[in-house]
Amino acid sequence: MQLYALRVLMRPRDPDLFSKGTVQKDISHFENAMVIAAKNLHMTSSTPSVHKKTSYTLKLSIKPTDGVMAGVISKLQKIKGHDKDFREYDVDNYPPIVWIWDKVEQVLLVERKTAVFKDAQQVAKAFEDLANNDYLAQLGLRIFIEPCLEMEDFWSEYHRLQFIDKVSFTLITPNIFGSSKQALTNDLRKLEKDTNANTVTTIFENKDGNLKLKGSHWAETLVDWVKDGGGSWLIKGRKTLKSKSTTVSSNQTAKIVLI
C-alpha cells in the first residue's frame, strides 16, 4: 500500500493565546477535533442548516489511544447505475481510504488513491476542512496540514531546468512540533510576533533566468524546512534559452511511504 505522509501543524489564531494560560499547547486538540468531525458527519437534523454540508465522510476505527488514531476517509463520487428497465440513475459512492495518525511525529499516513483525491494536497485539504471545525474555532486554534516531501526532489526538479527565473518557498511559521533548524525558527518566531502571520513566502528571482541556489545555505535550510511538512515550494524556469517557461511545485513531489 502507498501512503502520503502529511504533517499536522497547530497554530493559535491569537499569538498570545498560549501565554494567557486559557488553552493548553497540546496536539490532542487535533485528535479531539477529528473525533467530533466524525461524529458530526453521521448526525442528522430536521434543520438542514444546522450541520455544514460536506462531500467528505470520516470514520474512526481506532479512537485516540496511546498516541495512535486510525480510520477511513472518503469523498463523495457520483457513479451511474441502471434499473431493471435500463433507466440510468445516480449512485452515491464513497471509496474507502485508510489513514493512520502518529501523535509523536504529528504525521498522518493516508492511503494514496488518486481516483478519489488526485494528489497529496487534496488529501491535506480534506483533513484541514474536517479538523477546522467549531471545536477548534472556539479554542482559538487552527490546523494546517502539508505533505512531507523528498528533499532530493527539489534539487532534481531544479537541475532539470537550465535557466531558473524564480523559486519561492511558502513557510508555515513555527508550531508546537519541535525546535529544529533553530536559526530559521527564531527568525520566523520574531516575524510572527511582529506581524501575526501564519505563513511567510520567500521569493528568489532573476528575470534573466540566471538564478543560482545550489550551495546556498539559506536555500538548503528552506528546502529542509519544507520537506518536513512546513510549507511548499515552486520553481519556474526553462530547459533551454528559447523554450517556454515551465512551473513545477512541491505538490507534484509528495513523499510516498510503502507498507
TrEMBL record:
**Its domain of life?**
Bacteria
Name used for this protein in its record: Uncharacterized protein
Where does this protein come from, organism-wise?
A: Escherichia coli
Q: What is the lineage of its organism?
A: Bacteria, Pseudomonadati, Pseudomonadota, Gammaproteobacteria, Enterobacterales
